[in-house]
Here is the input.
Amino acid sequence: MKYWLNIDKSSKTTKLHKDPCRFCKPHNQSNKGINGLKRLGGWFRFKTIAEAKTYHKNHHPEYLWHPCRICTKKLEANL
Ligand SMILES: [Zn+2]
Here is the structure.
């Protein structure tokens, strides 16, 4: 299983996606990184939801935790 966490600095949210998802588009951009933060944030890859949650708690606790409604719907009990 593969999860992507979209850290978005402009909206101060972290959005969790389960790969594949049509709204999950991790690619390196000038203002958004992959597994690293840039000016507007970045995409981080995790093997489990728990790891993603821990990252969120340790690095961006002030950001909203926002699981993607499309791809994580069936997982909501675990979020
Ligand atoms: Zn998604």
About this structure: The first strand starts at residue 3 and ends at 8. The chain is about 15% helix and 30% strand. Residues 3-78 form one domain.
